[in-house]
Design brief:
The chain is an alpha+beta fold. Helix content is 49%, strand content 21%. The strands form two sheets. It has a six-stranded antiparallel beta barrel with strand order 1-2-5-4-3-12. A hairpin with a 6-residue loop joins β10 and β11. The radius of gyration is 59 Å and the shape is rod-shaped.
Length: 366
């Protein structure tokens, strides 16, 4: 009965609330009174959702944090690579500019190894005999000469640096042309000039360039800059130290200079042969000229010598009297056919004494 009464009461309240507005204030007051109960009833669900969200958010944040760390590491690596590429681009541009200033043919090479012996300054490059590298070939970087090739392999080559204690190079002071020999000291930052007179005109800051003597290194390439000049009154030679212009222990990209690949002996022989040929060329040209002149001289002399004996013979009948001219016209026909300028033939000389009237005519005329 109670359940039925409650059901009927509930239905009546719903109908009244739906049809009429009289229960609206009561519903508002009841909602305000029951709000705390609703909040308490939803608290477990909210706590669960909050805890789940916190746990999920923390794991998501941790995963996202790890992802961002990995991306940051990758970007840092790319940034480092970009910085390396930027520096490489700068060095290549410097090398390109230096190769544009070089008149000779050049080949770019990369350093791939360094000799571990601390007393030997040698490096290994990635160009060899297959690329045209030869012994003694000069090597330079963007700043100046570095050394020369001392060993050639099919695909690699070894370069002896200027600062090696066994290496020397002829140089000259760019300011005044003073010649000297720059020798390695085993220190990659220092060269020494041997046997420089104490009174020589050399001072700190002078640029030393290759002189080209010895025909091993091309002339005019920067070698070193003078850093110290020590004069000792009791010594005949000054102590001169210089710093290489090339970055011997820092350069990675190099230039191989293709100059004349002949040895000094071959170049000297070729120069001597060229000088001999140049000296013989004018004499060879004068010989045929003199010969042609010698052969040309008798040519005009022959016609002048031939008519010379014929001239008196031809003029003799012309100076004769009319009595002498009559038998000359009666002479045989062959002498007339040869012409007055032709030399006399033996037959005409034999018939000339056979005309007796001509002789007393000439004598009577004289």
């Amino acid at each position: 009965m109670r359940l039925l009464a409650l059901v009927v009461l509930s239905v009546a309240l719903m109908v009244v609330d739906a049809r009429f507005n009289s229960l609206k204030p009561v519903r508002s007051e009841m909602g305000l009174v029951l709000m705390p109960f609703y909040w308490l009833a939803e608290m477990p669900a909210r706590l669960w959702d909050g805890m789940t969200e916190q746990i999920t958010s923390r794991s998501t944040l941790m995963a996202e944090n790890e992802k961002l760390k990995a991306e940051a590491l990758l970007m840092q690596r790319r940034l480092q690579k970009l910085a390396a590429l930027t520096e490489q681009n700068v060095r290549l541009r410097e090398l390109l500019n230096s190769s544009a200033l070089v008149d000779d043919e050049v080949l770019a090479a990369e350093l791939i190894g360094v000799d571990p012996n601390p007393y030997t300054h040698r490096i290994l490059i990635d160009k060899g005999e297959k690329d045209g590298v030869f012994l003694g070939q000069p090597v330079l970087d963007a700043s100046g000469l570095m050394g020369q090739v001392v060993e050639v392999m099919p695909y690699t080559a070894r370069v002896l640096l200027l600062t090696d204690s066994t290496h020397s190079i002829p140089v000259q002071v760019n300011r005044n042309g003073l010649r000297a020999i720059a020798s390695g000291t085993g220190n990659p930052e220092r060269l020494e000039l041997r046997h420089v007179a104490d009174t020589a005109d050399i001072k700190v800051g002078d640029l030393l360039v290759s002189s080209g003597l010895g025909q091993r290194f091309p002339s005019g390439y920067p070698v070193a800059t003078v850093t110290e000049v020590v004069h000792d009154a009791g010594q005949p030679f000054a102590i001169v130290r210089a710093m290489p212009t090339a970055a011997l222990n820092r350069s990675r990209y190099l230039l191989l200079v293709f100059t004349d690949q002949r040895t000094p002996e071959q170049r000297a022989n070729d120069s001597a042969i060229a000088a001999e040929q140049a000296a013989e060329a004018p004499a060879g040209e004068a010989t045929p000229a003199s010969g042609s002149a010698a052969t040309a001289e008798p040519t005009p002399a022959a016609p002048t010598a031939a008519p010379a004996p014929a001239t008196p013979n031809a003029t003799t009948p012309n100076t004769a009297t009319p009595n002498a001219r009559t038998p000359s016209t009666a002479a045989p026909g062959p002498s007339d056919a040869r012409g007055p300028d032709a030399p006399p033939s033996p037959s005409s000389e034999q018939t000339r004494p056979s005309t007796p009237p001509a002789v007393p005519a000439d004598q009577g005329a004289q």
